[in-house]
Specification:
The protein is mainly alpha-helical. The chain has 5 helices and no strands.
Length: 126
């Protein structure tokens, strides 16, 4: 704290201005740092899960990928072939495809992360 009244007044005015009109870039930087901390924590958890020898811990991402892949294969390959075969045999069966409206966002998210990982490997980052 300054001893002369002019510097003390300037310090007081500066403190008041900063309380009334806080620095937006400082707040944004603090918010970004908090988000990065959360993301880094999730990355650390993902590394521990992937290193696990238990298939119930390390295998859930590949399992979800296979389920989504099989659902797509059924909808666009298996179902048309099965419908054609049953009609050709003279016993048409009413079958429906998998609900892709819930599956596709998950699959696209996984494919996006997979392509990012491939990009990192090509660039030599990881």
């Amino acid at each position: 704290m300054a001893l002369d009244p002019i510097t003390a007044g300037i310090d007081l005015a500066t403190a008041a201005i900063q309380r009334i009109w806080p620095d937006k870039s400082k707040q944004e930087a603090e918010a970004l740092a908090a988000q990065l901390t959360i993301v880094q924590g999730q990355i650390d958890v993902n590394k521990v899960e992937a290193a696990s020898s238990s298939p119930f811990t390390s295998g859930w991402r590949p399992f979800i990928g296979w389920v989504c892949g099989l659902g797509c294969a059924w909808n666009w390959i298996g179902l048309p072939v099965a419908l054609f075969a049953t009609r050709l045999a003279g016993h048409p069966v009413d079958m429906s495809g998998a609900n892709v409206t819930e599956m596709m966002p998950l699959l696209f998210g996984m494919l996006g992360l997979g392509s990012l990982r491939t990009f990192e490997k090509v660039k030599g980052v990881a």
